[in-house]
Amino acid sequence: MAAFEITREGAVAHLRLTRPEASNALDMSFWRGFGPAVSALDRTGEVHALVISGEGRNFCAGMDISVFSSGAILPAETSAQRQAFHQAVRDLQDALTALEKARFPVIAAVHGACVGAGLDMVSACDLRLASADALFRIEEINIGMMADVGSLQRLPKILPEGVVRELAYLGNSLTAGRAERLGFVNAVLPDAEAVVAAALEMARTIAGKAPLAVTGSKAAIGYARDHTVAEGLEWVAVMQGSLWNPSDILTAIQARRSKETPAFAALAPLVTPGSEG
Prior knowledge:
Layout: E1 4-9, E2 12-17, H1 28-44, E3 49-54, H2 65-69, H3 79-101, E4 106-110, E5 113-115, H4 117-123, E6 127-131, E7 135-137, H5 151-154, H6 161-170, E8 173-175, H7 176-181, E9 187-189, H8 192-207, H9 211-225, H10 229-243, H11 246-258
Parallel strand pairs: 2-3, 3-4, 4-6, 5-7, 6-9
Antiparallel strand pairs: 1-2, 7-8
GO molecular function: delta(3,5)-delta(2,4)-dienoyl-CoA isomerase activity
Pathway: Lipid metabolism; fatty acid beta-oxidation
Pfam families: ECH_1
C-alpha cells in the first residue's frame, strides 16, 4: 500500500497518510516520495493550500522500524558509513523541509498519536489543528536516540523552551488541550472527522485570498523567525516591491464591496532546471 495519497479540490490539495494498519508509520516509500510530491504540487502554481491528515486511529506513529532494520540508515562503523549516515539524515530532513519551502500554507489535521517523525512533520507545517484525543511526543528519547529530523530545531520557535526540553528529556506527551494553550495548535476539535473538516475549510478560506499575498506572508513570517526585526523589516520592504500587484488589491476591494467571491490569478508555475526543452 502507498504511504500517502493526494487529492485536489480546486486550489486545495489534501495529502492523506494511508498506512492505518501501521498507525501511518513513515516507511522508506514515504521518505522517497513525500518531498518530491509536495514540490510537484508547488511547481504547478495552482495549489494554494495543503491539508495533511492520517487515516485510521492515529495521525502518525513516527519512523517505521523498517527504515532502521533495512540498513539504509543504521550502519555507522567506518568513516565512510558515518558520512553516508549524515547524508541520509539530511535527506530525511529535506523531505519535511519541503513543507516550509512550498509557496502555499500547509495545515496539519492531527488526531490520536503524533509522535517521533510525525511530530517532526507537523512542526514544519504552518498551522495545526488537533482532535481532543490527540497527543504529541518526542519519541526518539524513549528509544535511546535524540530527535534529528526537525522537532528540536522547529519546536523551540513555536513552544516555550522549557516545554521543549521537557518533551526532549522526559519523553512524555503533550496533550491537545495543553498544546492549544501553549499556541502549538490553533484549535482543538471533538474528533478526527471534525479536525479534517475544519482544516479543509481553513484551506478553502486561504485559497480564496490573493495567492501572491499569501505566499509573501508565509515567506515573511519564516524569514522573521530566523532574523532580527530590523532585518525582517528590510527584507519585507524589498519583497513587497517585488510582489506588489495592484490588480489583486483592486480585485479584493471590488469583491468586498459587491460581496462576491474574488477571482485571483494563480501563481506562476515553477520551471524545473532542464525541463525547458
